[in-house]
Design goal:
The protein has 249 residues and is an alpha/beta fold. The chain has one domain: P-loop containing nucleotide triphosphate hydrolases (Rossmann fold, 3-Layer(aba) Sandwich). The protein contains 9 helices and 10 strands. The strands form 2 sheets. It has a 6-stranded mixed beta sheet, with helices on both faces. Strands 2-1-4-5 form a 4-stranded antiparallel beta sheet. A hairpin with a 2-residue loop joins strand 1 and strand 2. The longest helix is centred in the last third of the chain and has 18 residues. The chain starts with a helix and ends in a 5-residue tail after the last strand. Bound molecules: adenosine-5'-triphosphate (ATP) and magnesium ion. Magnesium ion (MG) binds next to helix 3.
């Protein structure tokens, strides 16, 4: 299959510290047809995110933040333009290629956590490993490591309904970390949290480049995220206002 033979994708999963952008967007447009109306969600977006960066996307509701993350992660596809990951164009990726890439190389974190309510915290974190065919002692150790990393080991037997919102989001981050992704995309990860829990989640995400070598892109309304980001990109009406300093947002 494509990425077992592709150096770029092997690097993406292993992280060799390449100096090229982990994500490079070239003139991305995204349009949705709504009856006779065309909604332009992204307009000529060019963006490069380097290895180990903690990058925040900010802007008002409807400006295109989720659309941009979805295009980067292959959950949605651009109308025009090119997405390159680790120096390799994704133009020829099939849906199956994207699915494998997300399972092995790209961690996703959402506002609504998306944990399975019938599974314990540890079972939720183990799920990506099971889907990739990994089980047994090594999988158990990886799950324990990731739960430790987010400070949730003591709650590993709890189901999502027995956890606070912030704890659920930390479990969701552990689940995203378990394949050791090179790239982690977080869409409004603090949107359902109070300010204290939100700040804890942002601090956790902020620590991931240093602790796991991951590149992190967060779409957010959170000032904490903006203050802690290496770079803040503002979005307005689908247009990127590149490299705005946090002080200006
Ligand atoms: N499936 C769709 N069909 C039509 N229009 C869409 C679709 N998804 C998003 N849009 C439109 O695209 C624009 C960008 O939406 P998007 O969800 O990316 O915004 P956002 O910045 O993530 O907003 P929020 O902060 O509220 O999450 C909006 O105007 C939205 O109405
Ligand atoms: Mg959104």
């Amino acid at each position: 299959m494509l990425w077992y033979t592709s150096d770029a994708l092997v690097r993406l999963s292993c992280g060799d510290g390449t100096s090229r952008g982990v994500v490079k967007l070239n003139h991305i447009y995204k349009q949705y047809a709504q009856g006779r109306t065309i909604v332009t969600a992204l307009h000529d977006v060019c963006l490069e995110v380097g290895p180990g960066e903690f990058c925040a996307l900010m802007g008002p509701s409807g400006c295109g933040k989720s659309t941009l993350l979805n295009v980067i992660g292959g959950l949605d596809h651009q109308t025009a333009g090119t997405v390159a990951l680790d120096g390799r164009s994704t133009d020829d990726f099939s849906d199956a290629d994207w699915t494998t890439l997300r399972r092995e190389c790209i961690g996703l974190v959402f506002q609504a956590f998306h944990l399975l309510p019938g599974l314990s915290a540890a079972e939720n974190v183990a799920l990506p490993l099971l889907l990739s065919g990994h089980s047994g002692g090594r999988a158990g150790r990886l799950v324990a490591e990731c739960l430790d990393a987010v400070g949730m080991r003591e709650r590993e037997r709890h189901r999502p309904g027995e956890l606070s919102g912030g704890e659920q989001q930390r479990v969701a981050i552990a689940r995203a970390l378990v394949p050791r992704p090179k790239l982690l995309l977080a869409d409004d990860p603090t949107g359902n949290l109070d300010s204290r829990q939100g700040a804890e989640v942002i601090a956790l995400l902020r620590s991931l480049p240093r602790r796991f070598g991951a590149t992190v892109i967060v779409a957010t309304h959170s000032r904490e995220a903006a203050q802690q980001a290496d770079i803040v990109h503002g979005l307005r009406d689908g247009c990127l206002e590149s490299g705005a300093g946090s002080a200006t947002l």
